[in-house]
Amino acid sequence: MKIYNTLHRKIEEIKPINDRIVGVYTCGPTVYDHSHIGHWFNYVRMDLLIRTLQANKYKVDWVMNITDVGHLTSDADEGDDKIEQKARKEHRSAWEIAEFYTKEFIDTMELLNIQKPSKIVKATDHITDQINLIVKLEKLGYTYKIDGDGIYYDTSKFKDYSKFAYLDLDQQEAGKRFMPNPFKKNLADFALWKFSPKDRKRDMEWESPWGIGFPGWHIECSAMSMKYLGDTFDIHTGGIDHIPVHHTNEIAQSTAVTKKPLAHYWLHSNHVTVNNQKISKSLHNGITIEEIVEKGYSPEVIRMHILESHYQSQSKFSLDALYASARRLYELKSMAVLKYQPQNKINDHTTFSFKETANEIINLMSNNLESPKVLAFLSEIANQVLATKLTEDMLPYFNDLIQTIDLLLGTKLGSVPDISTEIKELIQKRELLRKNKDYRSADLIRDKLLTYQVELKDLPNNNTIWNWAI
Ligand SMILES: [Zn+2]
Question: For residue 406, is it left (φ>0), alpha (ψ between -120 and 50) or beta?
Fold first, then answer.
């Protein structure tokens, strides 16, 4: 199995540390607001990675964190804590805000059929682990204190700091107009521990060797990924915007202590634009899954839409584009419902191999998670199957294929329901009417079935197949 490894900027074969178990760490949400469509592109794509690993017979230990403290409004460690700020605005405690959005996040994961990670870990449950890691960094001389502010990481002490993101630190330093924090030694330095403000008690704060405060954003991912997956693990994932700061800082923190690489593979999901614009708070274009569902598109359609773009490409989201995704899902479901209506075995024997088809889609996904290619291939297959007569003897292989598609892509083709006996009887009645050339009465039944969302297609061989209408 191959993925694009940001570490070496090329597609590489995955060779796990442990033969059959792959450790994966995914940077999760900061739980201060609804996650928007851009976030969900990222998490669905990570789910595809996990599913493809599983299809390759790996057991996956998937750890995802929840940032419920320490993410400041500015990535330069300035400004307010996003969760505390929201809490004051809504007259609730930071704990309540974090709990509310964590639950919403997990519920939405389920809605989009994203597998549950083996562990979902919260920053606030791992304060001691984070403090211990900062103590180690302090002992090794990587930290300094800014009075009244916090404990900072001195990036000039970590010689490979610029390596991961190909940063040009000299240019960064020379080009800076003003230092947001004049006490920082280097522009790229970042907070490991922030002190609580003197004039105000925070909802979330802890004792530490340096004083009461809270951890910086980056230290949680170093502390928790290493705690659950080891000093070096297989795959670290996140959004592409994590590369120059968050992931660069994670590597600086972890490798400074362990002298080992944090992960062997880094997989990043590219940006998503909404109506051709970057998603931002000021543009209010961060549409949520709930809002899209309110427009009449199911979570299944949204997931299908996400599968239509490759994780390395810049994807465009618009509500209009969802219509095409709904059509594609419909096409696959029309194929899936054929399992309820196999034809009698007839002479024109088909050589169609569902087993080969299943292997082919696993191969396509295993080659750098090419979900758009898989969908294009499946459209072809759906057309062929619809034109072929699916016979009783083909059914077990066909069902295996549907199961493979569902496991790999997270679709729910296998659970498309059958029609009721009452509707089956109506279809039979219509067939009889057609045989007797009473087309007017046959058409009346066809119209009636549409009110039950069932549509009929008369095949050239006089057989009729049904499908659920969109
Ligand atoms: Zn992270």
Answer: alpha
Domain count, the chain: 3
Q: How far is residue 345 from each of residues 49, 352, 355, 382, 390, measured CA to CA in Å?
A: 39, 14, 19, 20, 9
CA–CA gap between residue 102 and residue 32 (Å, rounded): 9
Query: Each residue of 251-264: pLDDT tens digit?
Result: 999 999 999 999 99
The angle subtended at Cα 7 by Cα 73 and Cα 68, nearest 5°, is: 30
Per-residue confidence at 280, pLDDT binned at 50, 70, 90? Answer: confident
Distances (CA, A) of 116 to 64, 105, 213: 9, 11, 32
CA–centroid distance, residue 370 to ligand 1 (Å): 25
- Provide the pLDDT for residue 174: 64
Query: CB–CB of 40/107 below 8 Å?
Result: no
- The CATH number for 98's domain is 3.40.50.620
Q: Residue 280 domain-assigned?
A: no
Q: Chain centroid to CA 323: how far? A: 21
Helix, strand or coil for residue 179?
A: coil
Residue 282 lies in a domain: no
Ligand 1: centre distance to CA 170 (Å): 26
Residues with CB in 5 Å of ion ligand 1: 27, 221
Give distance in angstroms: CA of 6 to centre of ligand 1. Answer: 15
Closest Cα partner for 115 from 67, 38, 61?
61
Distance 8 CA to ligand 1 centre (A): 20
Question: Could you tell me if residue 71 is inside a domain?
Answer: yes
- pTM score above 0.85: yes
Give 463 Cα–ligand 1 centroid separation in angstroms: 56
